[in-house]
Amino acid sequence: MPTSVCTAKASYKKLAGVLELNDTHLQWAQEGKGPSVRVAHKDVQALFSSKEGAAQVRLKVALVGDDTGHSFAFTSPKAHIEREKFKAELTVIVSRNRAAAEAQARAPVPQAPPKPLQALPVKPLTPAATPQRPPLVSATPSRAVSVSSAEQRNVTIIPGNDPATDVRLRKTVLMSDPDLGALHRELVAHTGQLSEAEFWEGREHLLLSLAASENQRKGKSGQMVDPRPETVDGETKIVMTPQMIHDIFDEYPVIAKAHRENVPSKLSESEFWTRYFKSKLYHAHRASIRSTAVQHVVQDDPILDKYLEKIDDELEPRRQRNERVELFVDLGATFEDHGETGNEKDITMIAGRQRGALPLIRKFNEHSERLLNSALGEVPAAKRQKLNTDNSYGQIDIDDLHQPESSAGIVLEMQDRQRYFEGGISTAAPDAALHKPVDIKTLIMHAKVNMEGWQTKFTQLKVERPAGDEALISMTKNVAARLDVKSRKNDIPDALFRQMTICQTATNEFLRQFWASMYPPAAEVQVVAVATPAQRAAKAAKMLGYLTKTQEKVDALVYAGPQHGVEPTRIEIAMKPVLDAANRAIAFHRTKTAPKPAGTRG
Amino acid sequence: MKFSIDDLPVIFPYDRIYPEQYAYMCDLKRTLDAAGHCVLEMPSGTGKTVSLLSLIVSYQQFYPTRRKLIYCSRTVPEIEKALAELKRLVAYRVECAETEEAKEKERTFMGLGLTSRKNLCIHPEVAKEKKGKVVDARCRDLTNAVACEKGRADPGSVPLCDWHENLGKMEPGSLIPPGIWTLADVLQYGRDNGVCPYFTVRRMMPFVDVIIYSFHYLLDPKVAEQVSKEMSKDAIVVFDEAHNIDNVCIESLSIDLTRPMLDSAARSINKLGDKVDEIKTTNSSKLLDEYAKLVNGLQEESADDAEDGFMSNPLLPNDMLNEAVPGNIRKAEHFVAFLKRFVEYLKTRMRVLHVVAETPLSFLQHLKDITYIERRPLRFCAERLQSLIRTLELDRLDEYAALQKVASFATLVSTYEKGFLLILEPFETDNASVPNPVFHFTCLDPSLAIQPVFERFSSVVITSGTISPLDMYPKMLQFTPVVQETYPMTLTRNAFLPLVITRGSDQVAISSRFEVRNDPAVVRNFGSILVEYSKIVPDGIVAFFPSYLYMESIVAAWNDMGILNEVWKNKLIFVETPDANETSIALENYRRACDNGRGAVLLSVARGKVSEGIDFDHNYGRAVIMFGVPYQYTESRILKARLEYLRDAYRIRESEFLGFDAMRNAAQCVGRVLRGKTDWGLMVFADKRFARADKRAKLPRWINQYITETASNLSTDMALTLSKLFMRGISQNPEENQTGISLWTLDDVLKAQEKQRALALEAKEAEDEDEFGNGEFTDQMLIDLDI
What we know:
The complex is a heterodimer of chains A (about 600) and B (about 775). By secondary structure, chain A is of the alpha+beta class. Helix content of chain A is about 50%, strand content about 10%.
């Protein structure tokens, strides 16, 4: 169990309660209730306290990624002393967190979320808590904290996540899927028929995918920076943001250079940009083919024109790149494979005739490469050629021509297997004997005899009229019936309908849990510790308990029908599939747990 | 996987085989047995190369004659891929071989690839040169026979190439251990062992079982004479990716002359003259020797000659004259004067300011009237120049490139009458005012260059993913194939979705037709296709345009319309540029972006650099968009001449040829998205002209069979709906088992063979009843004959 470092009476959001600092968390509980605020040590980012002598003795904790944080007011008579104690303890924690954060920021590739790693060292603390752990919940460091009343809230589904994140993830999933949310409310929050862990079992993938998508680092936006003037009240304006300036410097190192050399010594910041947008430099850099036409209008600028570069519109790029690419994409090698022969290409097929487009095209390629490098890092020249050496056949391999690796599959467990196969053999044997002596000649003879005189028979054929009529009438009836149903589909009052839906979804959830505990566990479950057979059996029994009640629930609904002006039979019909499914599960369970006949396995 | 076709055991380096591959191999074997030529069209991405190599290597290893394989491909990436494919195949064969002896036999199987000095040079100085021509020239200076002799006699007097020297010390025939060497492998081996990769390959060529190089090394007489002369006649020749073979043929016999070239040639002639005068005073015996040789008509030939031959005759082997050089150009100074006169004449011709088109005969007549230059000495021009350069022991031959070109031109123009045309274009475009004259000597008949290949080699295989309509090639190249086959693609589920978009969402018809292509509505609709697809397609999208000119103008227009800004939001953009190396780097980054999941769009040109030889399989190309029909530029005078010739000589109508040519290029672009049957991709044809039945009929059968009636006339929004539906379906795990239908196990192959045998038996019975018997050889007879 976690050891408490210090406790004090404190109010939070004007509710009286107890603030406690233990060796992993800072938590606050309303009097007589479980902790409602829990902050892991590593989430504490900053500490604020009210001035000495203020009316209230307050302590505010700011969290990582949440500056509002929590604010506590100490209420006991010796509030000051208590607060100082908390402050002293928390200051140590805060400084430790800051050091860790800096180290993380300095780390070269902070790609993998470091959370699981940090959590690991705390693990040895848990053994004391494990025996009390409910089944199916994995050992996580956070479980070490008080298990008793807070259990429902502090369950983590995904190991390695701290509970706060886990709760947040679950909340997001429930919010984004209203149906699931309703189910959760019904089963877990209101009735408590399922525990939080049980509810999420089998739905871990929802959390995992959400976590994965949240952890994905977003790259830079692909758009090129292209400040375009807007005309407001007859005045042409270009609005610059710091981000834009940064992007421009990134895109055009020349401007960064010009900026460095001239601001603030010769020009002020705004002067620089005004001049820039009027200069040839800007028009040369504009990602537009029309800029060439504008150039004649633009005035000379003694400062910025120095930075003008030659326009990169030659057939060969201005910036020659000598790195050799791997042979599979090396177009230059083909070009040099043999001496040039033949007539020159016709004018439409000569690349680079549209001079104005070339700088633009080059800029696209460079911009894309820059974006790629910002996300992946540059490719070192030495590594370039070896990109594919580890599996050089990868590029020529046709993967579906390989023998597929067979999966283990699920072994079919069958009652009375032996008897089944024996039975099959015994029935098949006479069958085979029966089929063997088929004499094709006699068959043909028979067919021929049967066909004899078909013409006369055919003329005598009379289709009885009533049969046709009957078919038509039945079809008409069918259509009418369906139309009828369609026209009064939604006449069940909302309240009842909602109840029915709840009943149905709840039963479905129980069924899901039930069958999940009956099936052999999936091999790839990586989330929750695999439950023991005993636990699974216990769970199945529990679910069965709920399922047996389905009949009562449906009966209640049927009974309530007339009060809402709905025929009971309709409700019965509507709920029948659910009931059937539940009964099926009950029956299955009965046969499975029933004493087994000798020699077979259930 | 091991099975046998007739009596030939075939080893196929996979556990499964596509039915197409099996059929392909059967037909290939039939061709080889019959010692004839064939045209085979096999769907892109169904493992054509591996089937081809697998069968031919099996064939080579099984029959004692061990016919050599000459495998030609278009581009260096394709050559490298074929080599890698071969390497894996042989490794698999070694694994499969049962006895140690058989294993050894497989291990000694040898395959090499050849490319230029520029691509294979490891000399630290020479390799740095940017131009292939310069590398060639500098390499020759360091490695030619004369220099070597001098350098060896007196070390240090002449700079030599150490890597080449090291090679000389080794035993010919074992310069490199047996096995399969890709280009990268050979380079690495050269670096590790200090030997020259280029000459290793060149000198090992007589000893290898498989040689892989580009079309030009067999079709271009200038190269072929040096490289491929000694190939034995029973070699199997394969032209893979042969859909453009007619263009390669034409190119290898065509020459352009420009004014700068003539100026440079004139300078070279002056230099030659100076050199001749100089050598006359210092070492006149050399010139006398040469003269004597020329009188006797001696061809200077030695083993080394073929290697450092810098420029050989541009003529096809049959057209070469085996007689002594005419008297009036035997003397060096006479020849120099002769060249001077010829170049002067050409310069005068270039002053004309109107377009001239004439036959070689009328050109020669005019030449004779003005300058008294006869036809016969002109024919020897190239040969005579070669001899002179050798006698004078010139170095840095790249400086004489223009002169060599003029000499080749002289030889060609005086040798060929039919199938060639001279066109003088004084202006680049119709509305240009500054003259930039170009003298085109253009070959119109692709069959000329390939004829020697068909005559010399018994089996020539022409194959590609897209050579529909099949009968076009035998017609254009003038040969009779024994087998001519196209294979449909068997699929259990449609792995690709061809769509024809004929109009934008606003119902404006889209087309790259010249009159409307720059219409803002069309440009916008093309743009919105790209934007919408960049939103819904994962990873890579490749877009092809009909020409560089159009791509460059449309990229600029899209940028100004803000269309590309929409694309930037979803994907990165890469564009093909005029520079090959720059484009390669862009391509590599494109692939990185696709691998990374960022996704990218590659804008490129049909029949451009990227469209040939680069694959966009799997995530590298989930959609290909063909903007417009890639017609050739019909205003081109060369094209017009060629069309006229095709019509007169082979009765191929102009429109038929243009349509065929456009569709084969479109199919080629679009076909690059697939490799294997689990791969998938969208193929979008965006032009209303694709909807016409006569256009679609020219697409390969394997693509055409999957264009549904509904998908052949769509607007952008409809196409998007279909695409989304397709992607949703295709991303599911394939439920049905492909095995047995589009994927065969060994059992399926055996079953098919059983069935075939039964059919053959039936056919035979039927034939026996036919008392007239058609008198052809049966396959069996030919097989027996071959052994």
